[in-house]
Design a protein that fits this description.
TIM Barrel, alpha/beta, 418 residues, 15 strands, binds flavin mononucleotide, three-stranded antiparallel β-sheet, globular
Length: 418
Amino acid sequence: MKCVDDFRLRFGKLELVPIIVGGMGVDISTTELALEAARLGGIGHISDAMVPTVTDRRYDTHYVKTKTKRYKHNVANSDKSEVMFDLGELDEAVQMYVGRTMEAKVGSGLVFVNVMEKLTMNAPRETLRVRLAGALDAGIDGITLSAGLHLGSFALMEDHPRFRDAKLGIIISSLRALQLFLRKNAKLKRLPDYIIVEGPLAGGHLGFGMDWAKFDLQPIVEEVYQYLKSEQLDIPLIAAGGIFTGGDAVAFLEAGVAAVQVATRFTATRECGLPPDVQQEYFKASERDIEVNTISPTGYPMRMLKNSPAIGDGIRPNCEAYGYLLDGAGHCAYITAYNLALGPHANAKKKAKHLSVMDKTCLCTHMRNFNCWTCGHYTYRLKDTTRRLDDGSYQVLSAEHVFRDYQFSTGQNILLPD
Ligand SMILES: Cc1cc2nc3c(=O)[nH]c(=O)nc-3n(C[C@H](O)[C@H](O)[C@H](O)COP(=O)(O)O)c2cc1C
C-alpha cells in the first residue's frame, strides 16, 4: 500500500514532500507552523491577514495603536471612508513579518504566504500591491492568492524583479474561476506555478454558496485536471479540503494531483496559533457543533464552531483599529448590521453595550482575538487523532507528528502520539 512519501511535488528540479500546510489567518498558521512544514521538506504557509496586528503582538510594534490614535475622532461615525492604512507602515509590517520568518527557515522545504483578496483594507488595489511587493521584497518563496478571483493580482506584481522567479499560485473552487484567471492574465505570459483546488469541506471562507454540500472536491479536481491536460498546461494541481488521513491524500496523488493542502489537522498542534483553551474546543466538537454560516462580512460562507463567541456578538465596529474588510468606500457589512441592530438603542449607550448582532460579525476583531473559531468540516474527528489525558483534556500534538502521519501512514490509519 502506498503512502504520501512515495510521491514528490516537483517545481523544476526542486523536489518536495507533497504536503502543504494551508494558510490560516489571523496567525493561526503561525511562523512556527510554517517553518516546521518547510523543515520537514514540505511547504508551510503564513498568512498576511492583519499583519500589522500580528507584528504588534509578536515583535512589539505599535501599528494598531498608531492607526487608532490617527482616527480616534471617527470612532462613533459609521462612515469609515477616511479610515485608511498608511502604506509605508503596511509595507514595513509585511516585510518585518515575512522577513523574520524567512530568516528563520531551515531545511529543504518552502514557506509561502496566503494573500486574501477579500481583505480590501479600504483601498483594495493599493494595499494589495504593497502586500504582494512587501512579501516578495522580504524573500518569501511563494504567494498563494486566495479568497477572491484575483483577476488583477498578477498585473500588480508584473514589474517586480521577482515576478518570474517566486512561486505564484492561486486557490480556486471551480474550473470556471481558473479559466477566468487564465484568460485575464494571458497577456502577461506568466502562468501560475501551482493551482490549488479547494473543496467545500475546507476551513475558513468557502468558494461556494450555502449549497456547498452539493459539491464534492474529487470531481472538481478531476475536471480541472482534464482541462489542464487538454490545454497542455503542465501546472502542478493541488487538492485541498477534507483530506484527513495519509490514505485520503494518497487517493488524490494516485489520481494525478501533485500535492495536497491540509490545515484542520494542524489546528491541533502546539505550533498552531490558536490558544490552548480554543484548541480544546476544537477537540471536543462533534459534527453537530460545526456549521457553515453567513456572518462573515466578506459575503463568503464560512465554517466555524457554533459556540464561537463571535456569533451574535454586537461589539462596536472597530475599523479605526483594524478596518481590513472596508471595501474602498468605507463600507463593511458588519457596520450596516450593527447600525440596524442599534436602531432603537441609538441613544442608550448602556443597552448598546449588550447588543446582539446575529446577521454579521466584526470579523477583524474576532479573528484577531481568536473568538471566531473557524474550522474544517472534519474538526469533529480531531479527537480521534490524539489521546485523552487524565484531566479529561486532549493531548495537543506536535506539527512534526501530524506531518509525519500524513507522510508515512497508509490507508485510514492515524498514528496516535506516545
Ligand atoms: C482554522 C482555519 C483557518 C483558515 N484560514 C484560511 C485563510 O485565512 N485563508 C485561506 O485561504 N484559507 C484558510 N483556510 C483554509 C486552509 O488553508 C485549507 O486550504 C483547508 O482548510 C484545507 O482543508 P482541511 O482543513 O480539511 O485540511 C483555513 C482553514 C482553517 C482550518
